Amino acid sequence: MCFLFHYCLSRRLIMKTRSIRSSFKHLSKQYFIIMTCFIIALINLVIYFNKWRSELKYTNKHATLLYFKSNEINTYNDLILTSNSFDIVISYYSEDVDYVAQYIRDLRNTVKLRKLHPRVIVYNKNSKINNQVLKILLDADIIQFLPNLGREGATYLYHIIEHYQILANHTIFSQAGVEGLTDKGLADWYSDRLENQFNSSVGYMPLVHPSMIVTIDCGTHFTGNFPRLVQIWALVEQTLCPPGGQAIAFRGQFLVSKKRIHKRPFHIYKYLYDLLTANSSHWLHRDTRSLVFKSTPDNPIFGHTVERAWTTLFKCYQSDLRDRCQRRECACFDES
Fold first, then answer.
1. What's the mean pLDDT when you consider all of the chain?
2. How many CB atoms lie within 10 A of CB 161?
3. In the beta sheet, which residues pair with residue 220?
4. Cα(123)–Cα(90) distance, rounded to whole angstroms?
């Protein structure tokens, strides 16, 4: 009888222990999921906070001038009627004016570019900013206002579409929040590409640090998956995306030749532009990137895809691109 009692008691203890372990495992799994969601939400919160803060930072000491009667004169637009040997196209929203002006000066003062008399074209996407004042403060040659749609990719594509027949021989496309500017001027790697690696036969050259160039496998990478990249590949190459890896460059900052742009038909650029500037009801805004990242016309998820697609569009996607940039051979060349 005593033996039976101990046996029953031990069985209950074993069952209780198993139940506790099972509950613990279940709670651990729930805790892991909750913590993962929390970390993702925190990352997105930081991203949105920085964006919100940058929109509030109305370019320090120039704020009074920049926002003076902007609603009355923001229809001011310079025309681009002729071609040029070298253009610098900058997509601007609310970045620090002094910082952007220094960037423009440093580009103009590059020995090799100075000989080409570069023309600076600024596209302002902030309706609150006075175009004429911004043009003076940045010492730009041409300024135009664009609606704040499609991130910097829509700005670049607009320039290509509107001036397809009078594009410069070479153009630098850059965000105003530039990669590669230091207190002493252009970073060494940036300056070296323009001074020593650029020549008239360059077709495409990424203007970002080698660490910002990675190899992906048809849109798949540990930094994030972009399945629409595979569709862009198929669209422009007319083939399925092959294995072996393709180089992409972040930040949307590069130099490209007119000849390289014209390698792709006009309708490709127009189609991508229409997708980037689609209104909020368009099916493309149903794409998801994370649990809390929402695609909007001013910041579409597809815009982040296009940022990674320039190497494909301009046929400089070989998987050794990063290694070549580290060897100071950071370009793809046009055929003579």
1. 86
2. 15
3. 217
4. 6
